[in-house]
């Protein structure tokens, strides 16, 4: 008998993986796809939009008709004209908590691990979340304005300056959303992200000129509120909309130049918080 020796040919080596080039077009495509994913989630659970649809209406009616009766404005100005720009800022800042909640959900449910296996631009998850929340913020601003029109509020400086006021508020809210993104990435759970976001934002919002004039506050508290970035963006919105702005009589630089102060605060927040959120995201995604 003869013995035949069988030889098995070895499989040819696989070519090395070629990394996907992250050109600007590819990055925009990744952000668009991920933003669409976030919008699909909202369409399947529309109650996620309650903070930009129902909440603005409730807060506007509550503050104007319940608390507004006890607020005395310098010169006897109408409280609703004073309050609507403040409520616009109030809504835009508080809804940024949703950015932290959304990122915390993705990180803690394992979705990020699946994204890591895809040839995609890694920071696209963060940018897409911020873009989605900016779109919902536009909806919230429109509902605040519609509610204001319904109760008799109106801007007095023309359409161009009114659009500039809304754009300035949206820019500031977008910058704050990156801070909430950092909170969401640092949190171990969704409930923690929401609690920490509200715990930080609510005192900052209420300790401002958004809902009450600051002239009657104690001196040390008035100084804090005058340099509060929320006060700057609110004063800028009132100035551009032509609504009552008692803060214009205060000598503090942010109250005398609220538009420039808002732009400076927004740029500073973006330059600090956006890179910080990117670093935190990469650390969480690598674990």
TrEMBL record:
It is found in: Cell membrane. GO terms for cellular component: ATP-binding cassette (ABC) transporter complex. Keywords: Antibiotic resistance, Cell membrane, Membrane, Transmembrane, Transmembrane helix, Transport. The chain crosses the membrane at residues 57-76, 82-105, 126-151, 163-186, 193-212, 259-281. InterPro entries: ABC2_TM (IPR013525), ABC2_TM_bact-type (IPR047817), ABC_2_transport (IPR000412), T7SS_ABC-Transporter (IPR051328). Its main location: membrane. Residues 47-284 form the ABC transmembrane type-2 domain. One of its GO terms (biological process) is response to antibiotic. It is a multi-pass membrane protein. GO terms for molecular function: ABC-type transporter activity. Belongs to the ABC-2 integral membrane protein family. This is Transport permease protein. It comes from Actinacidiphila alni.
